[in-house]
Amino acid sequence: MNSATISVKEARRNFAKILKSAENGEETIITKNGKVVARILPPKKRQVLDLDELRKFRESLNIEPLSVNGVLLDREEARY
């Protein structure tokens, strides 16, 4: 990922360009008095969930299914 470092003053003047850079996968680091105060990053790519893999993972946990009544009873017992 490419990155550029600019001052707050430059960021104010060039905000549209900074956003365009983020759209193109570039990071912009913004500094104030020489200290980093912000980073503008491109959005993370959305991860597509594989439901079969998720199901296999859940089954591998070997957790007993919960019933609503069981959860409510546990909650009531925990109160007293």
Key descriptive features of the protein:
single chain; alpha+beta; YefM-like fold; three-stranded mixed beta sheet; 4 helices
How would you describe this protein?
With 80 residues, this protein is α+β, with helices and mostly antiparallel strands. It has a domain at 3-40: YefM-like fold (3-Layer(aba) Sandwich), CATH 3.40.1620. The chain is built from four helices and three strands. It is elongated. It has helices spanning 8-13, 15-23, 51-60, 68-79; strands at 3-7, 27-32, 35-40. The relative contact order is 0.13.
Task: Fill in the CATH topology of the domain at 3-40.
Answer: YefM-like fold
Separation of termini? 55 Å
- Structural class, from secondary structure content? alpha+beta
| Counted beta strands | 3
* DSSP helical segment count: 4
- Over the alpha carbons, how many angstroms does the gyration radius reach? 24 Å
The outline comes out as elongated
Mean pLDDT, all residues = 89
Q: Determine the fraction of residues in helical runs and give it as a percent range.
A: 40-55%
Strand order of the biggest β-sheet: 1-2-3
CATH class category label of the domain at 3-40: Alpha Beta
CATH architecture of the domain at 3-40: 3-Layer(aba) Sandwich
Main pleated-sheet profile: 3 strands, mixed
Annotated CATH homologous superfamily of the domain at 3-40: YefM-like domain
What share of the residues does DSSP label as strand, in percent? Answer: 15-25%
- The topology string of helices and strands comes to EHHEEHH
